[in-house]
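Lab notebook, design round three. We kept the backbone fixed and only want residue identities now. Task for the bench partner: fill in a sequence for the structure below.
Input structure tokens:
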């Protein structure tokens, strides 16, 4: 978060006021910049190491796990995701507060809102786990972090689409309707390429065919990019909101 100096006359004013749209874009750009930087550096300087697999067949793209396990890519990714994770927790809390205001009188939807919050938190924890424990350090921990991230990401997107389907029925706000439509599209896109990626990964391990792992890596990129785009729909959901950093209110002096 940004910080600023303040004088005694401005004690009751916000230190920072940031439009939520800028906040959302900046959060996603941190992860996107880190991902692109790691892949490009891996291709330019560590091509053989990042594209090598146990099959020893031609491969032209590194998987995300391979590209973020090398140096300096590892530290670039950790830096970007470390900064990216704190706002993600804040956004999860903002969505839960939003849902609580909409579904306070509907127990089933309120229960789904709680589950959406837990899934969002677990998704972020899984991302941190796979980030700070690379596949070359402790593979089982990295693998479990990836599984947690992928599973909770899909669960979070599914529940979010269900909740926004309810919101859309009672909303005349064009931003909310646009947000719902893009959430559904990105969720279906994400699920489709998750399945295709799983197919290519299994086929690669079973038959060791050339190029197949490259296709898996490409699908993996699309899965992650669609996940980022899904989170970017907060741009519409909180477009008129601001993120503020303030000082605690002081007791009045008489």
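Proposed sequence:
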């Amino acid at each position: 978060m940004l910080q600023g100096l303040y004088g005694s006359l401005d004690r009751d004013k916000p230190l920072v006021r940031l439009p939520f749209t800028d906040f959302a874009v900046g959060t996603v750009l941190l992860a996107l910049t880190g991902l692109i930087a790691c892949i490009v550096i891996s291709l330019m300087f560590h091509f053989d190491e990042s594209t090598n697999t146990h099959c020893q067949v031609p491969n032209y793209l590194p998987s995300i796990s391979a590209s973020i396990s090398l140096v300096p890519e590892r530290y670039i990714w950790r830096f970007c995701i470390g900064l990216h994770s704190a706002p993600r927790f804040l956004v999860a809390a903002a969505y839960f507060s939003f849902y609580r205001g909409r579904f306070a009188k509907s127990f089933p939807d309120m229960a789904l809102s709680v589950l959406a919050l837990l899934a969002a938190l677990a998704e972020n924890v899984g991302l941190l786990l796979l980030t700070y424990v690379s596949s070359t350090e402790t593979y089982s921990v990295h693998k479990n972090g990836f599984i947690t991230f992928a599973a909770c990401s899909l669960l979070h997107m599914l529940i979010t689409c269900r909740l926004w389907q309810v919101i859309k029925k009672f909303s005349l706000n064009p931003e909310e309707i646009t947000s719902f439509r893009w959430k559904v599209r990105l969720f279906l896109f994400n699920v489709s390429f998750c399945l295709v990626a799983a197919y290519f990964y299994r086929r690669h391990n079973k038959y060791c065919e050339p190029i197949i792992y490259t296709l898996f890596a490409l699908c993996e990129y699309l899965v992650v990019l669609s996940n980022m785009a899904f989170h970017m729909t907060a741009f519409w959901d909180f477009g008129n909101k601001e993120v503020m950093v303030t000082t605690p209110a002081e007791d009045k002096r008489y």
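Keep this in mind before ordering anything: The longest strand covers residues 16-19.
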